[in-house]
Write a structure and sequence with these properties.
The complex is a heterodimer of chains A (639) and B (283).
Chain A: H1 3-24, H2 28-52, E1 55-57, E2 61-62, E3 65-66, H3 67-88, H4 92-112, E4 122-124, H5 126-157, H6 164-183, H7 187-205, H8 211-242, H9 259-275, H10 283-287, H11 293-302, H12 305-315, H13 323-344, H14 349-370, H15 373-404, H16 415-418, H17 420-434, H18 439-451, H19 455-480, H20 495-513, H21 515-527, E5 536-538, E6 541-543, E7 548-550, H22 551-572, E8 576-577, E9 592-594, E10 600-602, H23 611-614, H24 616-638
Chain B: H1 2-33, H2 43-52, E1 57-58, H3 61-82, H4 87-106, H5 111-142, H6 147-152, H7 162-175, H8 203-225, H9 232-252, H10 258-282
Helix pairs in contact in B: 1-3, 1-8, 1-9, 2-8, 3-4, 3-8, 4-5, 5-7, 5-10, 7-8, 7-10
Classes of the chains: A mainly alpha (639), B mainly alpha (283).
Chain lengths: 639, 283
């Protein structure tokens, strides 16, 4: 049997098998073993895929059954399940959108399509490989950390009987569906996996079964069903125009002139924006916070929202140079700005992370819309770095929340005294989001240079990146704000939590160092077909005609600076420790000064959240309006 | 290779020496405007030397880490400028220093430091986008972000980017901690926040932040000098005039609050940048 087919089967089906096993073998130890084994299989398979990429496979049948037929049946079953939930909760929008999708699918499968439409069902190029690596490695790490997290979670909420079998069933299924989505070339198969991720996120968000959880899960379901409807409509239109359902072949040059073709791509883009929770569809992702933290980590980093990014990156060459491309760029930059502004107004740590996800995804969309080699490179680098670091930050906040029973940034004041290692890891994560020489900043820098000729986009990017610095710096400072705690005593955490946080933190830093080679190995080959890639790698410096990205020299200098600062830090422990300045009325206790009648009075200072400017109440309606107008522009302009 | 080493050494030496001298002249000029005689030119060096040999008192050890990161980042930024690197990279490295100073202030428990730190963040928020847009202006005119190409440009950039130079003036006023933007901390002894953001930095660590600030000032004056990089004479006149104006503005305006700063600087700065950028874009 073909090695490549086996790997594809492992990447898609192993999580499914693991998921099914989780539901039947209901003991904690066995379940943990299954999750660990599935994760290991995924990571190893993804690693074996590296030397084989790129390749295409026809993969007409699986175990003697026609693959197309299997997917067809599964598609209808899936829509029926979604309809079932719609009827169960009497949710009109879900029912209507479900029925619409069934009708469209019937039209497509039974009336429109005649004869074979797909010859190469699997297309694994470097972009797919990058996605598979992110999904398999980051996704597995998140599932690992979910094992101790969910044990604690159920203990805390006294859930009996345990609902963990169902939880891990969905988590693993999600990973398999994601791998399928990025590996297949057949639009109907992609649509199937697209819907699976919708269903999985619905089940995960509603996992805790509280009223608010159910409500938010339903919101996620109807919004993403709208995305599914846009997707299937897009497929129909694409097929009418091109006569093919192969993702690679619908992007042939020369088609961009036709109105319907662009409208089809615009519909697919809208489906992608909904998946990626861009404004005005952000509410489903914000609502997803009610789920246990590993779910947020999974949705925000390696799955779900990355579906939208993947689709638009795939489609971008198809609309290069059109008005659609420009409006996608403006829409993305707007999301970047609006997400950053809303994040500034939040004191809830998870909400800050959520808005920062929306904001960063906006920047990636903006890069895809700018649609040059440089901007696409920036988009792919950001996709990768964001996945790793956002997973790290979510898992850290999850660990912190289980310890201090709050997710508010104000309550994390002085966290270094309580959980020094987790606090340090979180601060490192924050630093990796905003500072050179780390990858997120590198990609932001590339994005700025690529966007410099597009005035609206560059102005929004400039404002947004300043706002981004503001909310991250505030958080990092708050974590380290601390009355002197004496010796450094690492806190105790489950081994699997350390095994999740440690590698993600180290991986984020290591990837930044290896960014030049990631570019040469993974990104340049993807772009070589449609764009003229322009960077030359010389002594760790990526250089083109107008910019020089001195990656390795910067890493070396930053390391030197860090060493000096750490040596200074060690020496500082020997200095005389004094209480902070309180107008000369210090009491010796931190935070307290000597008030009237010699009574100690607590001095308090909260962070600035600038609620009157950046608060949700003030901004959300305007931002939704702006997003709505830009979406209309995208759809209308495509006509 | 030797050239690189010489340039690195130049950056490392020029920062503190020129920065200290600029600061000394600033003090004399300010004193004369206020009908005082003022300190000797080398007073800033005496001050810093005195601080360096004081006992080190620490409120939180991370503040020391942050002070070292601040001086490391600002000196690296200036060295990169001397090495004629990518301008955006220089801005980002400079921003690391500014952010680390804030993080250090936040790591203390004093309310004065905290409020100062948040005001400093708002100052960063005000000037950072404008600085990026100034650099975008350089790119639109010269076609490159690299300083080598900007220095190779034949005409003075001021003629094509006059509004962006005014925008840079706003940035410079904020960065130099001059009125009306001296919200987070101030050189003069009339701060309602004691020493604001710097309240809990003391002794040698306060000296480090002062030297780091000198590096930053020289870097910003360097960016100003790019507007007239074709001959030394023009560059000198531009820099002296600009700095004189900064001191003048400092002495004739009073401190405003952050709301005013944010709306005014973004309003005026973005409008001027947009006008100038559109003009370049169409031209």
């Amino acid at each position: 049997m073909d090695m490549r087919a086996v790997l594809i089967a492992l990447l898609v089906l192993a999580p499914l098998i693991g998921a099914v096993l989780c539901t039947f073998l209901r003991t904690q130890a066995v379940r943990s073993a299954i999750v660990l084994a599935t994760g290991a299989i995924l990571v190893v398979s993804a690693a074996f895929l590296v030397p084989l990429t790129p390749f295409k496979l026809s993969l007409a049948s699986v175990f003697g059954l026609d693959l197309h037929r299997i997917v067809q049946v599964a598609d209808f079953i899936l829509l029926l399940i979604i309809l079932y939930y719609g009827f169960k909760h009497r949710h009109l929008a879900i029912i209507a959108l479900g029925l619409f999708q069934v009708a469209m699918l019937v039209t497509l499968e039974f009336f429109l399509v005649s004869g074979p439409t797909v010859y190469e069902r699997v297309n694994c190029d470097q972009l797919s490989l990058m996605m598979v690596l992110i999904i398999s490695i980051v996704g597995s790490i998140i599932c690992y950390q979910a094992i101790p997290y969910m044990r604690e979670h159920e203990h805390h909420y006294q859930v009996a009987p345990s609902r963990q079998p169902r939880f891990f069933f969905v988590m693993l299924l999600f990973l398999g569906a994601m791998n399928g989505l990025v590996l297949f070339n057949d639009l109907t198969v992609i649509y199937f996996f697209f819907e699976v991720t919708t269903l999985c996120s619905f089940l995960l968000i509603g996992h805790d079964r509280t009223t608010i959880a159910t409500q938010n899960a339903l919101r996620a379901l109807w919004m993403n069903s709208a995305g599914g409807a846009a997707f299937i409509l897009g497929i129909l239109a694409v097929y009418r125009e091109t006569g093919t359902l192969e993702l690679q072949n619908i992007l042939l040059p020369g088609l961009a002139g036709s109105g319907i073709y662009l409208l089809a791509l615009a519909l697919l883009c809208v489906a992608a924006f909904i998946k990626s929770a861009q404004f005005p569809f952000q509410s489903w992702l914000l609502g997803a916070m009610v789920a246990p933290t590993p779910v947020s980590a999974l949705l925000h980093s390696s799955t779900m929202v990355k579906v939208g990014i993947y689709l638009v990156l795939r489609l971008a060459p198809g609309f290069a140079g059109t008005f659609l491309s420009q409006s996608v760029a403006v829409f993305g930059a707007f999301s970047f700005l609006a997400g950053a502004a809303l994040a500034v107004g939040q004191s809830n740590g998870k909400k800050v992370l959520a808005y920062s996800t929306i904001s960063n995804l906006g920047l990636i969309f903006a890069c895809a819309g700018i649609n040059t080699a440089e901007s696409m490179i920036a988009a792919m680098l950001l996709l990768m770095f964001h996945a790793v670091i956002k997973a790290l930050l979510f898992l850290s906040v999850g660990a912190i929340e289980q310890r201090i029973a709050s997710r508010d940034i104000e309550d994390m004041r002085g966290l270094y005294a309580v959980m020094p290692v987790t606090a340090l890891i979180t601060v490192t994560g924050v630093v990796m989001m905003i500072m050179p020489p780390f990858g997120v900043l590198l990609s932001k820098w590339m994005a700025m240079e690529a966007a410099a000729r597009n005035l609206y986009v560059i102005i929004m990017i400039a404002l947004a990146s300043a706002l981004t610095v503001m909310y991250w710096a505030r958080w990092a400072g708050t974590l380290m704000s601390d009355p002197f705690a004496g010796r450094f005593r690492p806190e105790r955490q489950p081994v699997l939590t350390w095994l999740a946080l440690g590698p993600l933190c180290a991986g984020g830093a290591a990837l930044s160092v290896f960014a030049p080679w990631l570019y040469m190995g993974l990104i340049q080959p993807v772009l070589s077909g449609s764009y003229t890639a322009s960077y030359i790698l010389k002594a760790g410096v990526l250089e083109n005609a107008y910019g020089a990205f001195a990656i390795l020299p910067m890493c070396a200098v930053a390391l030197l600076g860090l060493v000096v600062a750490v040596v200074a830090l060690k020496r500082a422990f020997k200095s005389r420790i004094v209480p902070a300045y309180m107008s000369g009325l210090q009491t010796g206790q931190p935070f307290f000064f000597q008030g009237p009648m010699n009574q100690p009075v607590k001095a308090e200072a909260r962070n600035y959240y600038l609620d009157s400017i950046f608060g949700e109440k003030r901004l959300t309606d305007w931002v939704n309006l702006g997003g709505g107008i830009l979406l209309t522009l995208i759809l209308g302009g495509a006509l | 290779m030797t050239r690189t080493a010489i340039l690195i050494a130049c950056g490392l030496i020029a920062g503190p020496i020129l920065g200290g001298l600029v600061s000394g002249m600033d003090r004399i000029l300010t004193a004369r405007m206020q009908s005082r005689i003022g300190p000797p030119l080398l007073q800033p060096f005496y001050d810093v030397a005195k601080l360096l040999f004081k006992e080190s008192l620490v409120v939180n050890v991370w503040q020391v880490f942050c002070a070292y990161c601040y001086i490391a980042a600002s000196s690296i930024a200036l060295v990169l400028f001397f090495l004629q690197s990518d301008l955006l990279l220089i801005l980002f490295v400079q921003a690391v220093g500014a952010v680390m100073l804030v993080v250090g202030a936040l790591s203390s428990t004093s309310p004065y430091s905290h409020i100062g730190a948040h005001r400093e963040l708002l100052q960063i928020l005000s000037y950072e986008p404008l600085l990026v847009l100034v650099v975008v202006g350089f790119y639109l005119e010269t076609g490159s972000f690299k300083l080598t190409s900007i220095y190779a440009w034949r005409e003075p950039l001021l003629l094509k980017l006059p509004f962006l130079f005014i925008v840079l003036g706003y940035v410079l006023t904020i960065k130099l901690r001059k009125s009306p933007f001296d919200l987070s901390t101030c050189h003069h002894a009339h701060q309602e926040l004691v020493k604001g953001l710097l309240t809990d930095y003391s002794g040698p660590f306060l000296a480090l932040t002062e030297i780091a600030h000198w590096f930053e000032v020289i870097l910003l004056l360097g960016i100003c000098s790019l507007f007239w990089a074709t001959n030394w004479f023009g560059m000198a006149i531009l820099l002296v005039a600009t700095y004189f104006l900064e001191v003048l503005v400092d002495n004739i305006t009073s401190r405003m609050n952050w709301r005013w700063m944010l709306s005014y600087v973004w309003g005026v700065g973005l409008t001027l940048s947009l006008v100038n950028l559109i003009w370049l874009h169409q031209g």
